[in-house]
Amino acid sequence: MPRIRQQNVLAAQWTPNGGALGAADLTAPDNQVFGLNVFSPAVQRQRLPRDVFRRLQQTLARGEILDTSLADAVAQAMKDWALERGATHYTHWFQPLTGSTAEKHDSFFAPTGEGTALAEFSGKELIQGEPDASSFPTGGIRATFEARGYTAWDPTSPAFIMENPNGAVLCIPTAFTSWTGEALDHKIPLLRSMDALSKSAIRALRLFGDQAAQRVFTTVGPEQEYFLIDEQYYFERPDLITTGRTLFGAKPPKGHELDDHYFGSIPERILAYMLDTERELAKLGIPVKTRHNEVAPNQYEIAPVFENSNVGSDHQQLTMQIMQNVARRYGLVCLLHEKPFAGVNGSGKHNNWSMGTDTGKNLLDPGDTPHDNLEFLFFCAAVIRAVNRHQGLLRASIASPGQDHRLGANEAPPAIISIFLGTQLENVFSAIERGEAGESTPESFLGLGTPVLPPLPLHGGDRNRTSPFAFTGNKFEFRALGSSMSLSFPNTVLNTIVAEAIDDLAEELEDALAAGQELEAALRPILQRVYAENKQIVFGGDNYSPEWHAEAQRRGLLNLRATPDALPYLVRDETTTLFSNYGVLSERELESRYEVFLEQYVTKLNIEAETAASIARTSVLPAAVRHLTMLNDAQLPELARETAELVEELTEAITSLESANLAENQPHDDLLEHARYMHDRVLPAMDAVRAAADRLERVVADDLWPLPKYSEILFIK
Length: 717
Ligand code: ADP
Ligand code: MG
Fold this sequence. Notes:
Helix 15 packs across helix 17 (519-534). The chain is α+β, with helices and mostly antiparallel strands and 717 residues long. The model is unreliable at 6-12, 17-24 and 438-455 (pLDDT under 50). The protein is built from 24 helices and 17 strands. The strands form 3 sheets. Strands 9, 10, 11, 12, 13, 14, 15, 16 and 17 form a 9-stranded mixed beta sheet that branches. Strands 1, 2, 5, 6, 7 and 8 form a 6-stranded mixed beta sheet that branches. The longest helix is centred in the last third of the chain and has 47 residues, at 587-633. It binds adenosine-5'-diphosphate and magnesium ion. Residues 223, 350, 477 line the site of magnesium ion (MG).
């Protein structure tokens, strides 16, 4: 066993309540803390003139365009509230295509000219900002748009205050666009996709006799996995610092073979961290519901209660930020990378998704009356059709270099998109497909046409941990997101493809109804055909098994293993047509995303490759040579030969990686070709360096080894 470094054990002695940096008052009762730092509807009601409050709420409920005359009044109230909560600055908080959030702080205070300062914040400053857009990725849009970009207030996501031990900042969620009106962020298309889906779903609901609903919101509840490691180890791992994952590290003698971590009791320091994190999130109005240990050692999960997709996505970005900030109070580092440790389960994010009306109905809830069931089956069929039709696009929406280490690696869903319906629901659709009148037989206990359709139980039976897209009782769970990922883009895609499918089905249903058919008689053949055409996407077995890969291939399903295979689906004709038909992303906006994502892929792999080469040459190789010298000095030729061979292998691998990294050896004319080069040429070269280094790790004297080992990093809690 390697030694456990003394200084790390000392660092692990955290101070209760976060020590000096602990800003949270962990003694206040929950209900006094929740939403404390949010300019929520409740705060708005208190502080806005009654008329302004009413008009603002109305605008938001209907998803209408905001009357700018309201802005001054809102800005005034927001500023007063923020100053009382200790804020000195404000920022437009937005989500550029980097996938993280951006902020530029401005002080509230302006000098009066008489040696004093006055707090000012106008409606104009609330509504619009002008950050320098050239510092953010814009893809193809960059060429023509000369760096000018605007942030625009999103009144549908509440402003909040970020606390710091030394002050506080008012954060205003905003959208980010170019001066030509093109979306440069992840929020704008998400909002557009929510509008699109609402329109389609309301159209469909009317056919089922629902006249009350005015708007349909998509909802999202993310389950986030993450690792916590002692910060001392982090600082000793330049690969973790630079790339977020370990580029070296032999498999530890103890992994998760013992299954002793999953749902295990939570160690004291970790629980203290979780409580503090949840308190901070509560202040921001983010409702955390679940926490537990995950499968891998030092891996955990946090899940909030679901919210509408826009607020939920904003909150998810904030959650990731808070999780990382609070960790430092406890001498921990929170790793959100999809695959921080090779050979150990990586981290994902389950995206629970549904659609709900403003009258409080969940459209994916089977309900307990026949009528609800019809409506439910309609929306469910639309999802099946959407996912089947746009498998490649869905896969592209979750593609990233980190994900490439995970998807299809028997710990995460495969790169093949399929849907798990559960036995009961699958039986229901099969019965519909067979055109069965629907007697209540035990096998197909719910069919159309029976006088009394028994309700589908909410937790419709079994679960499938291996499925990328699973029905879980009253929502679908898109289980293939990466842990570090923003929710916005996958949900934008999901909303848009489902909006299209709902419209397709609604149109057919409208025609049948116009021809004088009864609702049920009209719907049955539509569901029958839609299921028959799309059931190839439905799979209830083990997604990890080789048999499924063969079967999926027989069915003609896509298997897009790596990011460069998946991203081109963003710019295929069916995608650009769909997205422009629904006004979600123009062809240019899609192309800019495609370019940005490819660029990010290339850049991230370049950074990894250079980091790997540098660590191998300047840390690992010298350690191995020292060890070799020691063996030679001790005249141990057998052992020395083994090490010498490994040193030689490592040296060759380093040379080859360095050559692959050379800019002049990489294709530059075409981004996709460049991405493929990184995947086909650079990644294997990195793997070869790692393979030699990891074998050396098992041979070289422990006190000479320059990097903390997995057996240390993963087991100190
Ligand atoms: P399960 O045990 O099936 O995963 P949970 O009730 O624990 O179900 O929910 C898991 C996640 O799903 C939570 O984050 C929760 O907020 C979310 N969720 C529940 N209902 C919905 C819904 N209608 N829309 C979106 N997410 C939802
Ligand atoms: Mg779940």
